[in-house]
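Bug: token stream looks shifted between consecutive jobs. Job 1:
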Amino acid sequence: MQTNNYPLIRQPYETAQAMPDAIEPVDFQQYWLVVKRRWKPAAVVFVATVAAATALSSQQKPSYTSSGKLVLRTNRIPSLTGVGSESGGGAAGALGSLNALTQQSSPLRTEAENILSRPVLERTVKALNLRDMAGQLVKAEDLAAEIKVKEVPGADVLKVTYTDGQRDRAAKVVNQLLQQYIKTNVDTTRLEARAAREFIDQELPKAKAAVQQVDAALRQFKERSQIVDLGNEQQMLSTSIGAIENQITQAGTELTEVNARYIALRQNLKMDTQQALAASSLSQSTGVQQAASQWQQLQSELQLERTRLQDGHPRIQNLLQKEQTLRQLLRQRMVETIGTSNASLQSLAFGEVKQSLVKEYLAAEMRRGSLANRLKALKGARIAYRRRLSVLPQLEQQQRELKRRLDVAQSTYASLMGRLQEVQLAERQTVGTASIVENAIPASQPGGSSKVMFLGVGVLLGSLLASATMLGLELADRSIKTVKEAKELFGYSCLGTIPYWGNPRQAKRHMGLVPGLPVREMPRSLVSAAYRMVQANLRFVNIDSTLKSVVVTSSVPKEGKSTVAANLAATMAQLGRRVLLIDADLHHPTQHRIWAVDNQAGLSDLIVGQVSLRQAVQPAMQNLDVLPAGVMPPNPLAILDSHRMAKLVKGLETVYDMVIIDSPPLVVEAEALTLGRLAQGTMLVARPGVLPAAAAKAAKELLTHSGQSVFGMVINSAVLEPEPYRHTDYNRDYYSRKAVPMMA
């Protein structure tokens, strides 16, 4: 977490963030610093370029320039084959085709390259017997370097230009080159026409076979699918389905009515169909009806006699015997008529009404069965019609695909036949796709650039190259170079700037030496004043609570974070505060060398419990104790990220007024992030000229993502570049009037 509570510091980064719509002014001072850093190699490049231009201008000789023009036409032969019309390069390009292969390619540019092709140039050299200074034939690539082919804007015309020291030879070279190109163009056009004819001759039988094959497939498809006219068949099926639907509705209605009549008659007659058929047959048999009539009369007579006589009377017995005889006769005739005698004798005598009902009942039964069969047949026909109608779209699609294939095959065959005639005509022609519209003539006056123009071009080119050199060197150097860049990149509050007090040229040679303590050795120096400014600003970073501990770290090694930590501790001790400086850089401890104390026992030994705090802490100066790193452990992170380390920091905050922890660099090791959580916050040290921009961005991301409380940053500019409004100049001037020794 970034903390910017100090109200007296205002950074350019913060100002730019507060005014996003403001136009950032051009920083000419920054450009001036770049020039001062890179002027030597830029001067070398500028002088070398101007010298080369001067040498070239002194070697200029009179030269003559001649030019001729070619007009190009579209080559139609690739399109006659039907497969090469898309090509604009390769062989097609050599024929003068004006169809571009890609959106970026230029047909005229393609022809320009064909003019400068090796075969055309070699034939030109041999025809003119062009030789160099050694008497050898001029090489094709050397001649191509002297010939320029340009496009005439707004026309399909190419202008060929050649410059030579001899006036007549320049025109001869151009004219011979154009003639050789025209000859090549004609030969290639005829060659391509012959290749096109051979290709069409091969493709014609294939096209004819394809037409026959597709036509046969279409015919077989129609026969297999029983297709005559799909459109009419679909309309007919739709009409037929509608008519069947109406017939099904009518048959269903009629069947419902017949069923109702059938049920009513059956309930009235109280007999089933078999009984009704038997009764109908018996009612239509004369013998059965006569016997039934006699039997009924005998029954009536028997009933009458029984009202007068007893059952044992001879008259009654005679009637009973006659009844038995008639019953047997009746059953015999029933068997002859319907094949059985199970019918009731009382049901043999029907009236006309009942006979009519029986006939109607039997007719209803027959009608009912007929309607049921018809309804079943209609529904079956409807299913068949619908199934056929459902497959018609698929059949239509297949037929349409076959017709489309047939049309394509027929069209291809007809097209090949027409193109064959065109190619045969083109093969007999002797005209290419290019022609000469203007021959070259000898130049009347020599040309060439003047020496002044060469020098001007040299100065301009030298300036551009010098600028490019400075820019390239500046871009190649990815380190942060100025205090302003460091402030803008990190965006943290600047707690102070520690200038390098000495010869800037010796700064890099002194990087590996043990840093000094200017705060202790020269308390009245400019560097000491800068450290006092840092500790003063540090006291105000958190106004809500007293600052008791801080971690001092940097992005990469050699930024001076150990020196800053040591001198900051000395500054606070000089002000009367009791300070403990802990060397937590267990990989490369430095504080014991800065303060010249013993490193036999230190922080690592204290954490593992081998020594006590009194034994590990060593006094360095008044009010300042140093806890060195101690023995280097195999896993420093495990020690610094332990519970005992956290408890130790909290305990030391109660004993000392300030605990300053010197931690490893952020990008190199992870201990700084761990220590930042144990202390109240982190102070970042940045050194221009040493800190790469990529490492600075990585360190900023680590601090942001880990949620560290960053109090601010200290610019430890070992070699401070001249910057505008730099307050250290005034400080140096102020302290120079004191009788204080200055650093070497």
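Job 2, same session, no restart:
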Amino acid sequence: MALLRWLVTLVLLLGVAWLSPLRAQEAPRFVGAKACAACHPSETSLWKGSHHARAMQEATPATVLGDFNNASFTQFGIPTTFSRAGDRFVVRTEGPDGYPHEYDVAYTFGVDPLQQYLIRFPGGRLQALGIAWDARPKASGGQRWFGLYPEQRLRAGDRLHWTGRDQTWNYQCADCHTTDLRRNFDLATNAYATAFTDVDVACEACHGAGSVHVAWAEVRPKPPVPVTPGDRMGLANWLRPTDGGGWEMDVQTGIAHRTAPLASTEPDTCAPCHMRRKKLLDTPLVGAPLLDGYLPALLDPGYYFPDGQIDGEVFEYGSFVQSRMHQAGVTCSNCHEPHGLRLRVEGNAVCGQCHMAARFDSTAHHHHEPSGTGGQCVNCHMPTRTYMIVHDRHDHSLRVPRPDLSASLGTPNACTQCHADRPADWAARAVAAWYPAGRRTTSHFGAALQAGRTGAADAERLLDALILDAGQPPIARATALGLLRNRATGTSEAAVKAAITDPNPLVRAAVPRALPAAPGRSMVQGVAPLLNDRVRAVRVEAARALAGTEAQMTDPQRVALARGLRELLNAELVDADRSESHLNIGLLYLRLGQATQAEEAYQTALRLDPRFVPGMVNLADLDRMRGRDQEGAELLRRAIAIEPGNADAWHALGLTLVRQRNAADALQALRRANELAPGNPRYAYVYAVALNSAGMTKQAIAVLEQAHRQHPADRDVLLGLITIARDSGDPDAAQRYARDLVALTPSDPQARLLLEQLGRR
């Protein structure tokens, strides 16, 4: 016994000895930029003049650029005045009640080419004023006040009104304009206690929490000795490449290449603030794998054109990862000095670092006057799009101009952006003459994405091919998976299964988007392994898609799903201040069969924003499920009063009125939904069924034929045409539509059987 007690004591002592260094080394803490300046004066000097350092500043005479000398600005008949009261900067403008009030400016926001102003509101909110200062020189049209929404009369209560929820800094802007942000939102009181270490984008925003590095610097020998290989100097995020590679010029191609595949945290460090994304963690670690903390937006309509060019305000990441530069190992700091943010060198020389000037910076390559705009690399390969009225931003996909795609897909191109008086086919012919074997001779993923967006007859085939093509950008392949939903047949199974084991996590995270609303057992079993993926975004999206399919799972899969659902719920609660997140939570609970919790989530969404129409529409649908259509109809009418142009609300109201046997009003509501959303074939189908039921067969066929022209791959529309034509005594038309269905789905035995039955009749 004595020996046993001695062994236990020894083990405990050794355990303490082993654990003590871990306990002594606490997690890194943020220390603020001032702690870095003394040891890094040159970097600090560069940073102080950068947009990062001036991303957000306290409003002082030194930081405010706008004219506050009793200046005035009027828009839609609403006057706004800007004045000074000592060191206070005062704005008098329309407030949340629709009446004018005076507000003190708390912070400036940005410096060039415009500056916005933040104003304190109750509940710890900062609101971004919708009138900005044009900081450009007067000769360029600047030095003036202007409205950020010049074509919209935004009334108090509108989410885009400067006092509305979509202009709240704490959610919309704070993450990327401060360092070590803690949003600190209290759902119970609908209030913020937001805090940060630095008011701007400072050192630790990129290098991570600095306390361990500061401690390392304090004990480092003086004078410093060279850092040994592998010594990370206590930095939380080591930004230097760890692959040991470098850049070498290939004299044959005139293009440099890396001697080793890039291994660096830099792309994942810059991306969160230079992309559209959904946060999955409240405070993701700086430099951690991107999809462990964020889910990037894909190449969706409104964000990107089908060929991947920027459309909405999407910043740089989603474009850059499409580029050959990204695939070759180029990172942000190859072109931009990381502290001052200026280009490494000016003009074409920045491209000349990797592209031999004698070969590419020449008339033989660009076919323009070298000193003119057409001789500048960025004008052809990084065309701009204007955001916030005055801000021209370069598309970072670094693409070869493809005016031929403009002709076929309706996308913009750099050629006709300059030659605005010429059509795209003119530019396409010119490029073809210069480069007979150029890019126009190769396929582009834009054709598949456009087919998927428009519901073209060959959409499934093109999307499958794109998903399986590992040479295409992962963001395009991931987008194709989402477009496959509701279009996939058995022929897509190979593409979806291949994506499940794809080496790129963005592709794997998009697999659940391809699933139907109620996936069968085979698909559930195929996707279930993603619940154990090493990347958080993949697990979260898999859990979202597989919620409610527990009956088709094994016990270990159910355990993995439960874990994934917890991660998903936590990810949604990161944005607990947004009604959209509570709507998502409600939808999740509904899939899990928990109607009471779903209703609570919808009600929370409406408590945060009483004008949140999607919350009303989904709560009305829950009323339908509970047999409370009268309450649902009242809720939908209220939604339509708030947003008369909301097609979803009109469609839901129409279906409710059908159930209430109010055919006349139902028909009008369904017609309105179809008019407001002509691109939605489901709304056309339902409206046509209602027309046919009301005896208006001719009008029903006209609606479906128009929908079929717009969406030739929509099977429901074709089935509707077949059924109505058959039942109305037009067998020839029914057979014609059935042949279209067989051509669309040649492997579907039900389609062939239907055609045979119609032939026998």
